[in-house]
Amino acid sequence: MRSLWNHRWLFLALLEREVRNRYVGSVGGWLWAIVHPLLLLGIYTMVFRTIFRVEIPQLGEHPFVAFVALALWPWLAFQEGVQRGVQAVQANSALVRKVSFPHELLVYAAVTATFVVQLAGYALVLTILALFAGGLSAMVLLIVPILALLFLLALACALFGSALQVFLRDFDQLLGPLFMVLFYATPVLYPLALLPGWLGDILAFNPLAQFIEPVRALALFGSWTPSTFALASWAATLLLFVLARGFFLRLSPHFEDFV
User: What are phi and psi of 134, to 5 degrees?
Assistant: First the structure.
């Protein structure tokens, strides 16, 4: 960790480059970061409320659009953060071959840039929901540490995946189908309480559910009681990060020969 602190200015430079190259210097980057989540939100709202007319009694007076929006932005931050983090080392192969520095900084910069941009959009969404969509509970502030743990989980997955990507060049091709399945197995478009008991119990073991459900409950209803599995999932996130970083550091010295 001391080595990382000594390279903090390099991390900030890499982070600035990530934001500038992917978002600031590209119209497409801004469209992806801002318009894409809004389009998804509009499509899901139209499909589930207008076409299928899905009713969710647990919502009470809160609109469906608020229900989905509160979960959609954290999900997109996690998904895009992992995907960009997995590609970070290979995408910077020239830098890895020519300069000696902690390679993990590339992953941290890619994931952090994604979360910074997505969560900036999320803050705007929360503001709009608080003003025009029936209001939000003051307990919404408690979602900050939960989102911080979600960020740590994204880092862990990206560290593990980016190390594999160096040696298995098509590893990132598996992420698209994997995230598609994982999206519908995560309660973004529905609450777990709406599912039949056995199915809800199975999907509750999806660790991402332990980040999505409390964020929504705290923001909309102002209360959420953590289950034993939720606390275990959060603790496991810390352990997973340590293990993923150890795995990455073990393979990092060989990156120059394979990128």
Answer: 90, 0
| Residue 189 phi, psi (nearest 5) | -100, 0
Distance CA 110, CA 106 (A): 6
Average pLDDT in the 95-103 region?
91
Domain ranges of the chain: 2-257
The model's pLDDT over 177-202, given as tens digits with 9 standing for 90+, comes to 999 999 999 999 999 888 888 898 89
Angle between helices 209-221 and 228-251 (to 10 degrees): 130
Count how many Cα atoms sit within 13 Å of the Cα of residue 121 in the half-sphere of its side chain.
25
| Residues 126 and 219: beta-carbon distance below 8 Å | yes
Do 140 and 126 touch, CB atoms closer than 8 A?
Answer: yes
Do the Cβ atoms of 41 and 136 come closer than 8 Å? no
- Are 18 and 109 contacting, i.e. CB atoms less than 8 angstroms apart? yes
